[in-house]
């Protein structure tokens, strides 16, 4: 097996399983661990994976997007802490937009149930989480359902969203960088997120440290458009400071 074929195999495995391990890859491809480390380094330089201690995980891009099911298995403790901290930023908001994705779903679970709230979402998972909350009214945006994320998109969703003035939007992204802002692979998803940004008076980004520095196809917001960024301590404090210089308060939990 040639080098390029092996690297394609490594990338396919990462995307299928959600992560790869150096020891397992070395055994599978019958090469030295150092060879695998060089392969991962090359794949990381091309923006296809992000290396971790002992392995790597795939980076979402214009041509690749992880499913909601895969997202529920990675960085779960960090995502839970992020969701709790993000929900604490609710303040006196009465109308809230909650984005698609697993971290926003956890934010929905963390919202208070003892006060009236109106939640607007494109996510069937978020709507399901809040369906039995007696004091929460859920408005589910219509449109084409994306099976990979169980969320609606296209003009039905954006037109409905454009008619609202929302106190606070909890927004996710596939990537966030100081240079390119917040990005996502699918233009239809990007349109819904962009409209949520326009409709909301306050905006909070919530995402794990692995999102930072990643860049996808469709830009829908700038870092400075947010009042707060909530992430985990995997984002170095120095890098968090660089993001905060662009405007938002960066919370690491």
From TrEMBL:
Signal peptide: none annotated. GO terms for molecular function: DNA binding. It holds the Pfam family DeoRC. Residues 3-58 form the HTH deoR-type domain. InterPro entries: Carb_Metab_HTH_regulators (IPR050313), DeoR-like_C (IPR014036), DeoR_HTH (IPR001034), NagB/RpiA_transferase-like (IPR037171), WH-like_DNA-bd_sf (IPR036388), WH_DNA-bd_sf (IPR036390). Keywords: DNA-binding, Repressor, Transcription, Transcription regulation. The keyword Metal-binding does not apply. Repressor of the lactose catabolism operon. Galactose-6-phosphate is the inducer. This is Lactose phosphotransferase system repressor.
């Amino acid at each position: 097996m040639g080098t390029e074929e092996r690297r394609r195999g490594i990338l396919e495995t990462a995307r299928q399983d959600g992560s790869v391990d150096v020891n397992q890859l070395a055994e599978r491809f019958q090469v030295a661990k150092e060879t695998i480390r060089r392969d991962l380094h090359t794949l990381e330089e091309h923006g296809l994976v992000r290396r971790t201690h002992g392995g790597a995980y795939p980076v979402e891009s214009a041509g690749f997007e992880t499913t909601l099911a895969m997202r529920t298995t990675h960085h779960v403790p960090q995502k839970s802490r992020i969701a709790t901290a993000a929900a604490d930023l609710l303040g006196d908001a009465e109308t809230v937009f909650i984005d698609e994705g697993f971290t926003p779903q956890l934010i929905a679970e963390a919202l208070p149930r003892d006060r009236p709230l109106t939640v607007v979402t494109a996510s069937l998972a978020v709507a399901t989480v809040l369906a039995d909350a007696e004091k929460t009214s859920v408005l589910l945006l219509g449109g084409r359902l994306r099976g990979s994320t169980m969320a609606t998109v296209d003009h039905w969703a954006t037109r409905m969203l454009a008619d609202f003035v929302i106190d606070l939007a909890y927004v996710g992204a596939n990537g966030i960088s100081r240079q390119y802002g917040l990005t996502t692979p699918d233009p239809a998803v990007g349109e819904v997120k962009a409209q949520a940004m326009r409709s909301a008076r306050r905006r909070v980004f919530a995402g794990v440290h692995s999102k930072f520095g990643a860049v996808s196809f469709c830009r829908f917001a700038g870092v400075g458009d947010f009042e707060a960024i909530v992430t985990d301590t995997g984002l170095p404090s120095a890098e968090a400071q660089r993001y905060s210089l662009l405007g938002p308060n960066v919370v690491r939990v």
